[in-house]
Amino acid sequence: MVSPMYVCLCVGVTDGQIRDAIYEGCCSYKEVRTATNVASQCGKCACLAKQVVRETLTELQVSQAALPYPVEFTAA
């Protein structure tokens, strides 16, 4: 298992927490930021946080494209 990487030191948000927020229904960086408070303090982590969001959403799209019946995500 890969160790969690801290993306936001100010509020202690890891890449795993960002991914979990997406798996739980967040569909954008804005929604992830609201759910996790990532980049809500100094903002230095915003670029990395956006990268994790982008990569995770892309992975989900690719994995869903392989399914005969794609899973639909709804905002909670």
UniProtKB/TrEMBL annotation:
Keyword Transferase: no
Ranges for domain BFD-like [2Fe-2S]-binding: 6-53
Record's keyword terms, sorted: 2Fe-2S, Electron transport, Iron, Iron-sulfur, Metal-binding, Transport
Entry-linked Gene3D superfamilies: BFD-like [2Fe-2S]-binding domain
Cofactor(s) of this protein: [2Fe-2S] cluster
Gene Ontology molecular function, alphabetical: 2 iron, 2 sulfur cluster binding; metal ion binding
Name assigned to this protein: Bacterioferritin-associated ferredoxin
